[in-house]
Write a sequence for this structure.
């Protein structure tokens, strides 16, 4: 009877052991949720239950519970089973073993570049290449590119390509990319790749002069343009005057040319100049350029020259106009009132003259104008009064001489008259003072 009871109990325990089953999904990809269910046909009382992977205990519960892997990764692949510990010795059970293999949703990305040694200033195309699982071709991915732990451009994008319009020497460094699902469950990073940007040395440095009207003029703006035919990266431009050798200015910028401006040129700025350019290699110097400075004419002075003090009709009058400052050649215009008389040039600078044969109509104001192509300047007006013709002037002179002679003769006559009168008075005085002689009388 006791033996029969033991056989019944053993048979019940065996039946319960066969009913402990681990249920798991048959196909799992990265990012999927995995739910493990440990099930028994009868809800017998247990002290604890546990889930195991590769003979390592994962989690323990006091009652039948599911085990959840929120987002599967490749390392979650393995052999799983569950176990229970019953209240009786013979109720300790172990489930069947389920092999779970987590499949790769997409491969680790590979960073490719149009060139890993691009020329400075040129474009570079980066691509983050990966392959989705054939069973999950519909999975949506987004991509991001990095350089030296810095995110490039605007961050994550649905495009696996990144176009960089221009790279510079400071862009040299380690690059990589990352790909992730739009649900952010799975993210994978590529290996790092080194991109070394190649700098091109500068070449053919030249200095160019830019001035209004094409000529350097005192008081106006002057631009010294330093340029290079080739070269990349930041270029340092500097300008020099040959006479002193000291730097007039310096600019560093990412371009093939730079300008130095002189706001108002002085006469002393005339001389020889050159510039240098340097982008980290050997500095290159331009040829020396001579810069002449043209001087506008100053206000001229008009001088009238005549053989006699009083100009008269028929005299030759010389008009001399001279500007004390101004680059040659200088053209002088001569005016009577507002009428042009003529012109004369001074090819080497200085003044110029114009001769005029006077007529009665030449009285009035005279002026002159100086112009060397940099602006005209007018003199002050000089008044001229013209007397009568030459014969009339001689008659006047004759009349003057005669009047002078008459004056001398008149003076002489008056003197003689006074002299005679004086002697007459003196004679009468002498006769009065002599003794009187008695007159004889005749008696009849």
């Amino acid at each position: 009877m006791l033996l029969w009871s033991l056989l019944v109990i053993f048979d019940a325990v065996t039946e319960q052991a066969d009913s402990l089953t681990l249920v798991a999904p048959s196909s799992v990809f990265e990012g999927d949720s995995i739910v493990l269910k440990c099930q028994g046909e009868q809800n017998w009382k247990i002290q604890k239950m546990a889930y195991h992977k590769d003979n390592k205990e994962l989690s323990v519960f006091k009652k039948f519970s599911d085990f959840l892997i929120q987002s599967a990764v490749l390392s979650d692949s393995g052999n799983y089973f569950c176990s229970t510990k019953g209240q009786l010795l013979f109720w300790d059970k172990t489930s069947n073993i389920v092999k779970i293999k987590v499949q790769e949703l997409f491969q680790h990305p590979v960073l490719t570049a149009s060139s890993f040694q691009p020329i400075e200033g040129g474009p570079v195309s980066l691509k983050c290449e990966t392959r989705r699982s054939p069973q999950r071709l519909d999975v949506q991915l987004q991509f991001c590119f990095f350089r030296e732990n810095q995110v490039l451009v605007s961050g994550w994008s649905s495009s696996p390509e990144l176009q960089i319009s221009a790279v510079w020497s400071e862009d040299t460094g380690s690059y990589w990319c990352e790909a992730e699902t739009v649900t952010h469950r799975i993210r994978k990073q590529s290996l790092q790749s080194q991109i070394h940007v190649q700098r091109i040395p500068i070449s053919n440095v030249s200095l160019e002069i830019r001035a209004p009207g094409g000529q350097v003029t005192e008081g106006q703006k002057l631009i010294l343009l330093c340029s290079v035919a080739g070269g990349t990266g930041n270029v340092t431009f500097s300008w020099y005057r040959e006479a002193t050798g000291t730097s007039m200015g310096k600019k560093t910028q990412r371009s093939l040319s730079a300008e130095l401006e002189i706001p108002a040129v002085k006469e002393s700025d005339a001389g020889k100049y050159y510039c240098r350019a340097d982008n980290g290699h050997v500095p290159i110097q331009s040829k020396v350029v001579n810069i002449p400075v043209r001087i506008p004419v100053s206000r001229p002075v008009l001088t009238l020259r005549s053989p006699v003090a009083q100009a008269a009709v028929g005299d030759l009058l010389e008009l001399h106009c001279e500007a004390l400052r101004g680059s040659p050649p200088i053209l002088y215009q001569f005016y009577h009132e507002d009428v042009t008389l003529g012109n004369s040039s001074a090819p080497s600078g200085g003044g110029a003259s114009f001769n005029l044969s006077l007529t009665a109509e030449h009285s009035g104001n005279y002026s002159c104008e100086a112009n060397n192509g940099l602006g005209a300047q007018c003199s002050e007006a000089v008044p001229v009064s013209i007397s009568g013709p030459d014969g009339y002037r001689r008659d006047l002179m004759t009349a003057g001489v005669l009047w002078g002679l008459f004056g001398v003769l008149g003076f002489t006559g008056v003197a003689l008259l006074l002299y005679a009168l004086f002697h007459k008075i003196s004679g009468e005085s002498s006769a009065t003072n002599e003794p009187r002689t008695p007159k004889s009388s005749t008696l009849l």
Summary: The chain has two helices and 34 strands. The CA atoms of residues 229 and 389 lie 76 Å apart.
